[in-house]
Amino acid sequence: MGHDSNTMKRILILGAGTAGTMMANHLRRHLSVENWEIDIVEERTEHHYQPGYLFLPFDIYTPEDISKPVCEFIPKGVNLINDHIEKIDPEQQFAIMRNGDRLHYDLLIIATGTKIAPEETPGMLGPEWQQSVFDFYTFEGALALRNKLREWQGGRLVVHVTEMPIKCPVAPLEFAFLSDSYFKNKKMRDKVEITYITPLSGAFTKPKATTALQHLLDEKNIRIESDFAIEHVDNDNKTIVDYGGRTIPFDLLVTVPTNKGDELLARSGMGDDLNFVPTHKATLQAKNWPNVFVLGDASDIPTSKAGSVAHFEAEILTENILSFIAGEPLKQEFDGHANCFVETGEGKALLIDFNYTHEPVEGTFPLPGIGPLRLLKENRMNHMGKLAFRWIYWNMWLKGNHIPFVSAKMQEAGKAFD
C-alpha cells in the first residue's frame, strides 16, 4: 500500500551516537509509522561505548567490549542511512548528503556530538603525536596509548586538559587516578611522577567537588597545576608552554585537546565559534529554528557533555517533540541534570549528581536514604556501579528504556544541600 506523500512527515536525526540512538528509539515508540518516517544518518558503522575509552589504555576493557555495530541499536521502522552529511539548509529544511541526495525534513534533531580538535593547539599534532603525546578521547588514541603504556618504563606523566568545555569533564581526572593505580599494580609507581594540568582554578568545574577530589589528588601524590592555558606543545624539548611562558616538561603527555562540535555545523552556519548549536537550555529547541532540536554534546547548553545528560535530555525532549508536533507549548523542564561515576583507582569510585543550579552534593543515589550508591564518597560499590553501567548502556540506555528510580530531573530528597 502506498502512502499519500502529503500526509507522511519526516523526522531526520543527525548522528547515531548515544543521543541520536536514544531519540530514534523513544520517538519510534510514540509516533505512528503511517504518519511519521524517521531517518537517522550516521557515517560510521561501529557504535562505541565512549566511557570505555578511559579503561582501554589500562587493559581493563578490550576493544571488543566497547564496540558494536550501529545497526544493532536502531529500532525496526527507523531508516538508518550510512552516509556523510555535507550541509544542512535550515531555511529550506533539508540536509544534503555527500552523494548529492537531499533529504527534506519536517523536524530535525541534531545529535552530532563533539570531537577532539588537536589541530587547534600549535605543535600538538607534531612529530611526537602518538609517540609521546596521546589522547584517549578517540578509539584510536586510547588504543595507541594502551600499547604505549604496556611498554613504558616510567618518567614524567602529564595529564592535561586544553580548554573547557570538554566531553565528560571528570575523565582526565579519572585518568590520573587510574594511572596511579595502574603503576602501583605494575610495581613501578615510584618511577612515575604524575602531574594533572588544568585551565581551571581547581581540580573540577564545581568547587564543592573540587574539595573532595583535591583530597584524593594529595593522597595519591598527584601534583596539580591549575590556571594553565596552553599556548603550544614543544616537540623538540618535550614541554608544554602556556601563554604566560610557564613550561612543563613531560616524558608522556596524555592530553584532552580542544573539543568542538561537528564541522557540518560550521559549514551550515548553525554553530557558535566552537561549532556548538545555540540551544534553549530548558526545552532543547534550537534558538534560531523552531523545528530543530539539539541534544547530547552538540548543543551549547551549560551542562556537562556526558552520556547521563543525553539520557535525561532524551526523556524530556521526547515529550517536547510530541508537544511541538501537537502545536502545544514546550515544557521548560530540563534542569541540566548529570550524574557520573568518578573512577578513583584501586577498585573504587565516587558518584556525583548535579544540575544547572546545584553543585555536586553528598547523600544517597538513586533512592533517598537507601542508595545503594553514596554521593561524593569513594567506595567499592560505586566502582561496581561504573562497571555495571556498560551492561545498562548496551541493553537499556541505547534502546531508550527508562532506568528504574533514576528520574530525568535531579531529585532533592536524601541529599545534603547547604
Description:
The chain has helices at 18-30, 139-151, 171-185, 207-219, 263-267, 307-325, 380-397; strands spanning 9-14, 36-41, 46-48, 67-69, 78-81, 85-89, 94-97, 102-104, 107-110, 114-116, 133-134, 155-161, 192-197, 223-225, 230-234, 239-242, 247-249, 252-256, 259-261, 292-294, 338-345, 348-354, 362-367, 371-375, 415-416. The chain is of the alpha/beta class. It has three domains: 9-57 and 68-113 and 262-325, FAD/NAD(P)-binding domain (3-Layer(bba) Sandwich), CATH 3.50.50.60; 117-258, 3-Layer(bba) Sandwich (FAD/NAD(P)-binding domain); 338-416, no CATH class. The strands form eight sheets. Strands 5-2-1-9-20 form a five-stranded parallel beta sheet, covered by helices on one side. The protein has a five-stranded parallel beta sheet with strand order 11-18-12-13-14. Strands 6-7-8 form a three-stranded antiparallel beta sheet. β1, α1 (18-30) and β2 (36-41) form a beta-alpha-beta unit. α1 packs parallel to α6 (307-325). The protein starts with 8 loop residues before the first strand and ends with a strand.
Helix and strand layout, with pairings?
Elements (H helix, E strand, L loop, with lengths): L8 E6 L3 H13 L5 E6 L4 E3 L18 E3 L8 E4 L3 E5 L4 E4 L4 E3 L2 E4 L3 E3 L16 E2 L4 H13 L3 E7 L9 H15 L6 E6 L9 H13 L3 E3 L4 E5 L4 E4 L4 E3 L2 E5 L2 E3 L1 H5 L24 E3 L12 H19 L12 E8 L2 E7 L7 E6 L3 E5 L4 H18 L17 E2 L2
Parallel strand pairs: 1-2, 1-9, 2-5, 9-20, 11-18, 12-13, 12-18, 13-14
Antiparallel strand pairs: 3-4, 6-7, 7-8, 10-19, 15-16, 16-17, 21-22, 23-24, 23-25
